[in-house]
Amino acid sequence: MxxxxxxxxxxxxxxxxxxxLTRAMSELGHEVIFVLPQAVGDGAHGEHVxxxxxxxxxxARANRATTYTSHFPAGMTNVEVxxxxxxxxxxxxxxxxxxxxxxxxxxxxxxxxxxxxxxxxETVTSAADQPTSVVDFGQSSAKxxxxxxxxxxxxxxxxxxxVEIALGESFDVIHAHDWMTYAAGIAVSAATGKPLVVHVxxxxxxxxxxxxxxxxxxxxxxxxxxxxxxxxxxxLTRGILLNRYAANGDxxxxxxNAIDKNGSVAEPPPAIRRDEKIVLFLGRITMQKxxxxxxxxxxxxxxxxPNTRFIMAGSGDMIRSSIxxxxxxxxxxxxxxxxxxxxxxxxxxxxxxxxYVMPSVSEPFGIAPLEALSNDVPVIISKTSGVSEILSHxxxxxxxxxxxxxxxxxxVLRHPPLRAALKEHGTFExxxxxxxxxxxxxxxxxxNAIDAGAHRA
Amino acid sequence: MAxxxxxxxxxxxxxxxRYSIFDTVDxxxxxxxxxxxxxxxxxxxxxxxxxxxxxxxxLHEGRFKVSYSLTGVVMDQFAEYTPEVLDSFKRLxxxxxxxxxxxxxxxxxxxxxxxxxxxxxxRMQQDRIEELFGQRSSVxxxxxxxxxxxxxxxxxxxxxKAVICEGADHLLGYRxxxxxxxxxxxxxxxxxxxxxLSDDIAFRFGNRGWSEWPLTAEKFADWxxxxxxxxxxVNLFMDYETLGEHQWADTGIFDFxxxxxxxxxxxxxxxxxxxxxxxxxxxxxxxxxxxHLISWADTERDLSAWLGxxxxxxxxxxIYKLEQAVKAKDDAALLQDxxxxxxxxxxxxxCTKYFADGDVHKYFNPYESPYDSYINFMNVLDNIQxxxx
Lengths: 457, 389
What we know:
- The structure holds 2 protein chains of 2 kinds.
- By secondary structure, chain A is α/β, with parallel strands linked by helices.
- Chain A has 16 helices and 14 strands.
- In chain A, the strands form 3 sheets. Chain A has a 6-stranded parallel beta sheet, with helices on both faces.
- Chain A is globular, with a radius of gyration of 22 Å.
- The longest helix of chain B has 29 residues, at about 30-60.
- In chain B, strands 1, 2, 3, 8 and 11 form a 5-stranded parallel beta sheet that branches. In chain B, strands 4-5-7-6-12 form a 5-stranded mixed beta sheet, with helices on both faces.
């Protein structure tokens, strides 16, 4: 498994999916070798850290693959983690905007450190040996050239190190998550002859709208075509793969994400009864998440329900413009931006919320609504989200239909029976969505990939 | 001998348009959609079925009889969108072989919330029936066959001779629905739906996976004859839209309907009766004791399709809360709007029972979800309330 963040750090993200699947597979008795990038440099132990390109010294130190034995949560007996020092992080973009708050992964290693260095395949060697040739990938602004080029360099360097690890292991199938690991997946498959499954959690179109980064698109397209099987997180994503990546429909299966209902101890209600209702936005504040639609709906809601507060939790490249928009709309005093939340803070903010809204323009899946539901918070989600394919007991809107979004927010705030019905049925529905089910779906896909490979050979 | 008693329910609600909290006009109904559905169902069901019934009455020279319950709101919509359907019902009424029974004008759940409103709506529906078809009935059926002893007593007090309801197994026990019964607390007769034979037509007719498929007129007549010895009347109660709309014409439902009466009448002594004739010619054989509310809906035969969740009971409570305020306004348009909102379909759309499974509830639901229908309804109600001030 070529994945991200282990254990996961960012709520609801790619890391959560990798972790949930891996743990469930372990519980089902399948062995997983989990390969992931481990942040390099001083930032490795920071929290809100801006990681730039590594220094030559860091690269030298980093050009080795490392094995960590981390503290695992229960049920991970069949999992081994191999981390590769790297500056790769999920959701990174070449040339990320200045001032953005980013988070890095941090694995608390307290076990042995094993160094494995083996030879590598030609393609990735050339990428590593001639970094200047891959700088061309970063075709964006001058500012991003340096970092962007570096990122593509990292992707290939990472691939080379992944091959090193792979040659020392025995396994049946390769499972690569999102574009930054596709090159590694392809290289490992080429070096070992094992079938490749790529798992598409989001596409460049979801992240960038129509302004796609051609280089990333090319990597994604190559990954999807090179793979023996492709897992899409929703029918929505599958459609994009077929229509915009010319993927072979026979190869693309849908496996939905899930959530682990933690046996949450019911917290006592807040001692002070607040008279304000709280509407929550939680996620990266970026174009794909539709923060401006949330704010425009908030404006309308406040005209009818002035005793409402809107919380926009998260960070992202639109945080400044969102704060400005709130001020422009004259609702600045009603909108709070607490920044990026994690762990207990996420649970706490869900406990406070009367309603969770996900107005995403494009959401390949969307785990956060599942977290909201499992915290007994009613949910409004955008119809253009993968998760809306599997949830019935939620309210759904077109992200652009701000009036309808406001209409539904007001209804939830005004009518306790609506909240009660949504909670009651939503909680029940979300309990059926388990990572074990998702893991079984992935394992079926593995088996198909292995059978197809055997058939070909 | 066995009598066959047909009663067909004819109803279409006034569906609401999409009404947001930001809407302020007092125009709540989706006339485009209502007119479209009315025309569509007229073409597929009402007109061809009425023609078929008319032909049967002529063919059997008065030995074939049926009864209908037409809601006030469907008569209003026929008058507005498809007057030819009303004309074809008038032609049926003129044969003397058709009875139009009584129910609430608005196909409402008013019995549960307001007895004044309940009685008033029954009177309104019977007045309209008399105006159109020149008859009044002494037989009553409540919305969705919602029934208990108390309902029987309430309509007995209004002078009705009989009430139609579901022949629920848990109330009948070993007994057959093919007799006339009475409630323990009132002087009125009860006609029970034979749900097995009724559902063979209404739900199973076109189902190719059913072991009895295809259902022929001969086979069905045999089943009716089998009743001889344990009962004297087979009550076949169903939605009229079964004919051509729920069971499409290509299932052969109209051929079946056309040939079945002839097969039933082949047996000496078999006949067709209207509910009033059944009541006039038979005395009750026992008590049908319904302490709890029953209905003809779903497998539960209870009220959970309209009152199964917090949204439904809230919406119903809120609408009947407005009764005094609406009536005090003495505004005919306001009163009519408020009453059209009482139609049970609006609450049925809010049912979450089978929502995720996508079954019959979804098929009849103009909303994407029960939650959407509740929000829409409450927004309209909010506007109605503002008009009472």
